[in-house]
């Protein structure tokens, strides 16, 4: 249940951030991932174009999911599962691409770093509100 709440919050957050804030967050995320994974300059050059493409495709899947729910007026369990499967398929596709430019250990660290970053971002937003 906690994961669903976090996902819903991140989806809400992604729709409310302005383009400028979005750009700033992406820069902070890039720095965060670079430090967490201890990427070399060669790895940064090879990895981030792929990661940026992946991030855009993730946004597209989420946007499609929101649009379908808005258009249908109801959320179908089958539609939700299809979109979750789309996201899993996308992750599998890009994990293979990441493995071509990063060692396996750093690919695993990437998944952990993304989770850490989301938690850090949510905490900062929570602190701002208080």
What does this structure look like?
The protein has one domain. It is mainly α. It has five helices and no strands.
Q: How many β-strand stretches?
A: 0
Q: State the helicity in percent bands.
A: over 70%
Number of domains: 1
Which series of helices and strands comes N to C? HHHHH
The computed structural class is mainly alpha
Provide the descriptors you would attach to this structure in a database record.
130 residues, 90% helix, 5 helices, 0% strand, mainly alpha
List the helices and strands and how they pair.
Elements: H1 2-16, H2 19-37, H3 41-72, H4 77-101, H5 104-129
Kindly summarize this structure in a few lines.
The protein has 130 residues and is mainly alpha-helical.
């Amino acid at each position: 249940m906690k994961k669903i709440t976090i996902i819903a919050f991140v989806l809400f957050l992604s729709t409310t951030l302005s383009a400028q804030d979005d750009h700033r967050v992406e820069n902070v995320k890039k720095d965060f991932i670079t430090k967490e994974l201890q990427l070399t300059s060669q790895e940064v050059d090879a990895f981030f174009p792929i990661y940026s493409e992946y991030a855009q495709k993730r946004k597209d899947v989420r946007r499609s999911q929101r649009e379908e729910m808005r258009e249908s007026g109801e959320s179908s369990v089958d539609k939700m599962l299809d979109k979750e499967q789309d996201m899993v398929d996308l992750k599998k596709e890009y994990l293979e691409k990441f493995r071509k430019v990063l060692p396996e250990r750093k690919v695993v660290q990437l998944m952990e770093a993304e989770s850490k970053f989301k938690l850090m971002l949510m905490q900062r937003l929570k602190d701002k509100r208080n």
